[in-house]
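Aim 2 progress. For COKA1 protein, the working sequence is reproduced below.
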Amino acid sequence: GLSQYSSDPRTEWDLSTYSTRDQVLEAMRNLRYKGGNTFTGLALTHVLEQNLKPDAGARLEAEKLVILLTDGKSQDDANLAAQTLKNLGIEIFAIGVKNADEAELKQVASEPLELTVYNVLDFPLLSSLVGRLTQVLCTRIKEKSNKENSDIPVNTGPQLSPTDLKISAVTSKGMHLTWSPPLRPPKKYRIVYYPSKGGVTKEVVLDGAVSSLQLSNLTSHTEYLVSVFPVYDTVVGDGLRGVTSTLPLSSPRSLRVSELSHNSMRLSWKAAQGATQYLVLCSAAPNGAED
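Predicted C-alpha cells for this construct:
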C-alpha cells in the first residue's frame, strides 16, 4: 500500500489493491509526485487510520511495517504519531533525502536504529539502499512472524469494534464523545483528533472500561476529525470516526450609544459569553460629517 502526503495525506492504493509484483511496479511508474508541505505526523496518523485497517487489506495476523520517505523536517509532531504506531506493534523505517532532519528520523524510527534509519543526499541515491533495505525488511518480517501468537483473531467484526459514536455538547472550545463498547472489552482506547484542514494531531488514551470523553482546549470555528480505536493485547480493532465543527466564539450584542456630547459618548452592550476583555475601535465617519 502507498500514501503520499503534504498538508493532506492521500492514499494512492491500499494493501488489497494489487495482487502481483508487476501490477505494483506499473502503479509505481504511473505515480505522480505530490508537492507541498511536510506534515509527517498527520501522514502517519492517516496510515494508521486509513491504510492499516482490515477493510483496506490489512490482515490482523500479518506483521505491520511502515516505510516513511521524507525530504524535510516535519511541520507537526511526527514523534507523537510515530510513538502511537510503535506502541501498537507497528515497525517504522525512516528514510531521509536532501533536507531531512536526521534527529527526527531517529526519533520516528523503531529500534534498532542501525537497521531502520537511512539518509541520502539526493533522490537518485535511493537506489543504493534497495538491496540492503529489502534484505532487512524481509528478515524483520520473518523474525517477528516466528514470534507471533497463533490465537490472534482473524477478523475484528462487532466483537472487537465499538459502535455508535455520538458527539454532543459542542462549544467553541470543546465537545463530548460517547460510544458503545464492543462485545469484548478492550484493554484501552486511543482517541485521535485533529483539524481536517491540517494541524497538530492530538491523542488521548483511556482505560477500556470508559466509553466517553470530554475534549477541551479546541480551536473555535474549526472542523475536527475524531477517531476512537479499541486496543487489545495483540490487535487493534476497527476505529470509529466522526467529523464535527466547533462553534464560533460568541459576539457582544445590542450595541447602544448614550450620553452624547460634543467630544464624548457612552457605549454599552450585552456581554459575549466567555470574553475576558473587549477591544473598542472608534473612527470618524468617512464622509467627514460632524455627527
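The first helix runs from residue 21 to 29. This observation will guide construct design in the next reporting period.
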